[in-house]
Amino acid sequence: MILVLGGTAEARELAAALDRAGIRVISSLAGRVANPRLPVGEVRVGGFGGPAALADWLRAHKIAAVLDATHPFAQRISASAAAACPAAGVPLLRLERPGWTERPGDRWHRVADLAAAAALIPSLGRRVLLTTGRQGLDAFAALAESWFLIRCVEEPRPPLPLQNEVLLDRGPYSLAGELALIDRHRIDLVVTKDSGGRLTQAKLDAARARGLAVIVVDRPPGAGVPTVVSVAEAFSWARAKGP
Ligand code: NAP
Fold it and tell me: Least crowded by CB within 10 Å, which of 34, 48, 130, 135?
């Protein structure tokens, strides 16, 4: 049995490929989203209770290998897997999609974290499309002069910036849709994590087309685990680990 730590499109693709190949797979979701997109195959939901509990879970379920296909910014579960797998004697591979790269015409400002993004906002724009997700929005709460269109999957919890509108939505997003959103709300600045991937890339294309500045929050450091960037590579590795 292969464990896929999920919550991403790549994790769902991987689970589907393993299932199609007749390899037993169980996908794990954190349980943050009320109506998650479910992978095919077996699914479990909720935290494991930290690295030691995850190691126990791996042993108890006779897991042959773990694929950490969680989001590039899901730092704690990746660190947990990096500690638990060696402890349980289970091989671990990280599947992480490449980050986005700046293209001609882009006006990107890379920053280390959400606090640095917040510090930069007043000098770059007044009407902000904020797409960094529901967690960590308190970093922007003190920015009283800027207006925020906060787009996220689930209703965010306060504290939020004083002037805001919440848009509950989930990708994939199209270029036409992103351009229309930017124009309708007179957005002059986009703030994003460097999540990478095709599904949410259109905001960057739209920002380039409209000449807007973009603040890109860099990924946190990884857990030092062997890493591949494609579902195909992860599939080959998992298939070699057995049924
Ligand atoms: P996180 O900070 O790394 O994880 C916090 C805790 O949630 C972990 O310590 C773990 O609890 C539990 N957890 C996280 N992912 C899990 C999984 N796949 N299966 C079981 N437990 C999990 O993660 P996060 O940033 O809150 O992200 C949560 C989930 O949303 C992840 O699965 C990730 O792939 C997905 N996601 C995250 C982002 C993002 O921007 N962070 C964006 C899109 C999707 P225990 O310590 O109790 O095991």
Answer: 34
